[in-house]
Amino acid sequence: MREIVLTGGGTGGHIFPMRAVAEELLARGEPAESVVVVGSRRGQEKDLLGDLPVQLILLPGRGIRRSLRPTALVDNVVATMGLILALLRATWRTAIRRPRVVVSFGGYASLVTTVAAVLSGRRVVTVELDAVPSAAQRVVLRRVRVRCVAFGNEDPRSVVTGVPLRDSVVAVNRTVRVSWGAPDRHEPFTIVVMTGSLGARSVNETIGALAQEFRQQPLRIIHVTGRRDYAACVSRWQPLASDLLRYELLAFADMSELWSQADMAICRAGATTVAELCALSIPSILVPLPGAPGDHQTKNALRLVEVGAALAIADGELSSNSLAQAIEVVMQPATLGAMTRAAGSLGHPAATKKIVDEILRVIQ
């Protein structure tokens, strides 16, 4: 049976969307043996996708380091050799198996498989999670049949589908939170801070300092520090019993639970985070990761800023003062309502279904 190949990975931001699409294909009746996921041995694919009833192929190789340091140059020589070996294996397999379509989710793990697909004349679809295609996707962009994009562009091949999200996120009920200011609401205004599984030290330190300044404010801050900085944050900023501020420190959390409690979010601007904020109509202050490939996080943030869904603060300009000013702006009832509506206008809770629709349309 000819296959549908999903390729990408290396990080959870690519892997979870691949998983969502694979599960939707299976739910639509696609036989498990016809769905193949191709990723990297060095990434998290084995841990995050290993329980799926589909074939999982892990190729050798790693991404290229963007540095001129001697150690980076040596690593890049090794990485290039790994990519060549992976390309040879992918080309051979693609020529033999002749998949119906190859779907690229970006990341270095997708490069060799999509190049092999182009060399073999196979159909290629890209799922572009950020405001700009990844470097691996740009290599083959001219040969792509359909581009499933998070944000609109002028390419006639592009279809705005949004980013695939977990069912637990799509199911979040935020009816109570979007009624801020209603007479019958008694919960404090809640700010959720989240910058990834490891966390972001610059954001963590700023939030901790801000919490000290806000100690007598009737607010709630749920601060997900990430595992790396949690112990240090707790030892420095454990809230006092006399504080009016409810300041909660967590190392890790199920964000589908926290998003239901958020009136506002402070986050990095990765593709999945931005997609969740928009799908759930959550106003936000975004602090893009500096040095992200292609500066894609800044471009993601600017798409939200352009429509009034978010404010953005550059990492180098982040301070307790600049953040406090931004929070004060967002908390104004009229501003909060406008940002909530603007975020929702960019949301695509049915993104996974739309992407699978496009994949099946290409192979018909």
What do you see in this structure?
The protein is α/β, with parallel strands linked by helices and 364 residues long. It folds into two domains: 4-165 and 349-363, Glycogen Phosphorylase B (Rossmann fold), CATH 3.40.50.2000; 169-345, Glycogen Phosphorylase B (Rossmann fold, 3-Layer(aba) Sandwich), CATH 3.40.50. It is 42% helix and 16% strand. The chain has helices spanning 12-27, 45-49, 70-97, 108-119, 135-138, 167-170, 201-213, 230-237, 255-259, 271-279, 296-307, 320-331, 333-345, 351-363; strands spanning 4-7, 35-40, 55-59, 101-104, 124-128, 146-149, 158-160, 189-194, 219-224, 246-250, 264-267, 284-286, 310-312. The strands form two sheets. A seven-stranded parallel beta sheet has the order 3-2-1-4-5-6-7, sandwiched between helices. A six-stranded parallel beta sheet has the order 10-9-8-11-12-13, with helices on both faces. Strand 12 (284-286), helix 11 and strand 13 form a beta-alpha-beta unit. It is elongated. The two termini are 15 Å apart. The mean pLDDT is 88.
Domain tally: 2
Q: Which strand order do you get reading across the main beta sheet?
A: 3-2-1-4-5-6-7
β-sheet strand percentage: 15-25%
CATH superfamily of the largest domain: Glycogen Phosphorylase B
Query: Could you name the CATH topology of the largest domain?
Result: Rossmann fold
Provide the CATH architecture of the largest domain: 3-Layer(aba) Sandwich
Instruction: Quickly count the helices.
Output: 14
SS content category: alpha/beta
Distance between the termini: 15 Å
